[in-house]
Amino acid sequence: MAELGVEKKSKKDKTLIFCQTGISSIVRQLSRDLLCLLPHCRPEAKYGREPLADISEVLDLRNANRCVFLQLKKHRDPYMWISNSPNGPTAKFLIENIETLDRNFGGNCRIGTRAILSFSQDFDRDPPMKIIKRMLISVFRTPSESRPFDHIFCFDFVDNRIWFRNYQIINHESQEFREIGPRFTLNPVSIFEGTFRGQIIYKNPDYVAPSKHFKTAVKQATIKNKKRMERRTFNKEKAETLFRPHDDINDVFNS
């Protein structure tokens, strides 16, 4: 397994944040929010429909050793790839519950400041989560040359998902915080040994593709609609067989 090498950052470290063509507006805004919060990251032009394995060439041309790549599949399912170059590994996540800075959270922080990284204890329970933790540290840890700490990046592993929150430190002594945003959830999918290629060294057994959820929802809606139509037909046939007593008043109007 490739070593991540995040124990000590150097000035040569460079992280790119970019998207694939055809992404939605909310995913594009999320990439802008990440660039705003991570002063050590650099933007890159949109990536086309070429194979993802060729992204390693982009990183090589830009002298970058890691990247955050945002992708949209089937026009509705956003994914985040975090990769180390040139030897990997690469982690793939499904992004859920995105709320960007446009929501106007109550907190705020200065541009270019550093963030304290907070991880729940679940990240140390098994090797795959330890790898993911080190990869998140390599991307979200701001170099020491930046301004002092004034906010916290929180990563909590709950319900087999990574919940990201960003809080402003209002008072260090009283530990008073206020959420800044953005917020999103990362559902781990798999970890590759190389840079967007190589052997799959971890595959989340609890992950269910959104397309399967969509097919299940469509199937359930079809069954529900079929039962409703059958019930309507049954009620109509039953109403026709019911005995209706003769009403003499109706004969007055029919004559």
TrEMBL record:
Domain Brix residues, every copy: 13-197
SMART domains: Brix
Main location: nucleus
GO molecular function: rRNA binding
Name of the protein described by the UniProt record: Ribosome biogenesis protein BRX1 homolog
PANTHER family: RIBOSOME BIOGENESIS PROTEIN BRIX (PTHR13634), RIBOSOME BIOGENESIS PROTEIN BRX1 HOMOLOG (PTHR13634:SF0)
GO terms classed as biological process: ribosomal large subunit assembly; rRNA processing
Family: Belongs to the BRX1 family.
Compartments where found: Nucleus, Nucleolus
PROSITE patterns, per database record: BRIX
Single GO cellular component term: nucleolus
InterPro entries: Brix (IPR007109), BRX1 (IPR026532)
Task of the protein: Required for biogenesis of the 60S ribosomal subunit.
Pfam families xref list: Brix
Entry keywords, A to Z: Nucleus, Ribosome biogenesis
Keyword Nucleus: yes
